[in-house]
């Protein structure tokens, strides 16, 4: 069942310690290849900005760290230095912060798995479903 | 017909509850842990060719524990801030991680005189080593290497790669030696710290 969200651009990526994505999901349903590549590229490029902001601030939620045309990248860093990046076009900051906090709880549970290291990809279906559900609920 | 609630272990890891309240945190009896630890040491001893290798194996076990413990502790404390500074991180290990593991804060946190990238955390009576007796042939073995691994895991996942080792320091006042965890940060960490300090001052 795919829900078409009117006018929303949302891609969510969790970047692990070695700077590679361990989880990515496209929250607005399937898109064409070009836009997908563009989103991945923008998110990757924003990692530098996240790194800078990460070390100079003590906050978990870093708000919007980068812009590309009309796309914003908002970042959140967990205490274990895993970065959550959300590519969007103008969602409310509070809603995003709530979303990130909830995902951090799910991420913590995944991390507690002894077979899961900081660099393994997250392939758990329940995790996927929960993230999509949270996104629908909190990000509209 | 009533539907029984699935037991905690039948739930997917996503759905399992994690205690946030200080009172709900499950604890393990010291004897159970001591038994597990002694089996861990004999397992590692069978596969290690030397004392350093034995300590390395314990260190690796501790590393995995440390990575997870950092996230879990921060979650339990409902921490709304991270700790990008070296001193903050060390203080957190000293006063939050230690009571969580051993029930009391670590006894000492010092900076080495000779180098400013070396720090030491000491514990006068490491809970881990209380039931470990070390024979003469293994006299340089320190059971605290497991704790050194835990500290290394926490520092590494927080972004402070470091070389951590555990040492025994004989104390003149008591018969038991103090376990000291020696932490030597990588050059990249010191550079970053210096850049941050400069940015704050200037």
Automatic annotation (TrEMBL), chain A:
<dbReference type="GO" id="GO:0005737">
    <property type="term" value="C:cytoplasm"/>
</dbReference>
<dbReference type="Pfam" id="PF04628">
    <property type="entry name" value="Sedlin_N"/>
</dbReference>
<protein>
    <recommendedName>
        <fullName>Trafficking protein particle complex subunit</fullName>
    </recommendedName>
</protein>
<dbReference type="InterPro" id="IPR006722">
    <property type="entry name" value="Sedlin"/>
</dbReference>
<dbReference type="GO" id="GO:0006888">
    <property type="term" value="P:endoplasmic reticulum to Golgi vesicle-mediated transport"/>
</dbReference>
<dbReference type="InterPro" id="IPR011012">
    <property type="entry name" value="Longin-like_dom_sf"/>
</dbReference>
Automatic annotation (TrEMBL), chain B:
<dbReference type="InterPro" id="IPR016696">
    <property type="entry name" value="TRAPP-I_su5"/>
</dbReference>
<dbReference type="InterPro" id="IPR024096">
    <property type="entry name" value="NO_sig/Golgi_transp_ligand-bd"/>
</dbReference>
<keyword id="KW-0333">Golgi apparatus</keyword>
<keyword id="KW-0813">Transport</keyword>
<dbReference type="Pfam" id="PF04051">
    <property type="entry name" value="TRAPP"/>
</dbReference>
<comment type="similarity">
    <text>Belongs to the TRAPP small subunits family. BET3 subfamily.</text>
</comment>
<protein>
    <recommendedName>
        <fullName>Trafficking protein particle complex subunit</fullName>
    </recommendedName>
</protein>
<keyword id="KW-0256">Endoplasmic reticulum</keyword>
<comment type="subunit">
    <text>Part of the multisubunit TRAPP (transport protein particle) complex.</text>
</comment>
<keyword id="KW-0931">ER-Golgi transport</keyword>
<dbReference type="InterPro" id="IPR007194">
    <property type="entry name" value="TRAPP_component"/>
</dbReference>
């Amino acid at each position: 069942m795919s829900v078409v969200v009117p006018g929303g651009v949302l891609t969510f990526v969790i970047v692990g310690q070695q700077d590679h994505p361990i989880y990515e999901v496209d929250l607005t349903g399937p898109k064409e290849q070009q836009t997908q590549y563009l989103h991945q590229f923008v998110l990757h490029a924003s990692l530098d900005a996240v790194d800078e902001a990460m070390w100079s601030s003590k906050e978990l939620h870093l708000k919007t760290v980068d812009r590309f045309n009309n796309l914003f990248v908002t970042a959140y860093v967990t205490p274990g230095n895993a970065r959550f990046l959300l590519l969007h076009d103008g969602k409310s900051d509070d809603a995003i912060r709530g979303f990130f906090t909830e995902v951090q709880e799910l991420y913590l549970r995944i991390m507690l798995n002894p077979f899961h290291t900081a660099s393994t990809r997250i392939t758990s279906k329940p995790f996927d479903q929960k993230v999509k559900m949270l996104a629908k609920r909190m990000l509209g | 017909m009533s539907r029984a609630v699935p037991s905690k272990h039948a739930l997917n890891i996503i759905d399992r509850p994690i205690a946030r309240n200080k009172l709900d945190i499950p604890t393990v009896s010291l004897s159970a842990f001591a038994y597990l630890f002694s089996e861990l040491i004999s397992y590692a001893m069978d596969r290690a060719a030397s004392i350093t290798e034995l300590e390395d194996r314990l260190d690796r076990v501790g590393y995995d524990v440390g990575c997870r413990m950092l996230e879990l502790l921060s979650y339990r404390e409902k921490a709304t801030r991270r700790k990008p500074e070296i001193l903050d991180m060390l203080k957190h290990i000293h006063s939050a991680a230690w009571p969580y593991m051993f029930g009391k804060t670590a006894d000492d946190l010092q900076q080495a005189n000779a180098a400013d990238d070396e720090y030491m955390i000491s514990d006068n009576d490491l809970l881990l080593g209380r039931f470990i007796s070390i024979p003469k042939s293994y006299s340089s073995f320190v059971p605290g290497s497991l704790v050194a691994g835990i500290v290394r895991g926490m520092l590494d996942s927080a972004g402070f790669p470091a070389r951590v080792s555990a040492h025994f320091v004989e104390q003149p006042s008591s018969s038991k030696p103090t376990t000291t965890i020696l932490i030597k940060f990588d050059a990249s960490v010191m550079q970053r710290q210096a850049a941050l300090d400069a940015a704050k001052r200037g």
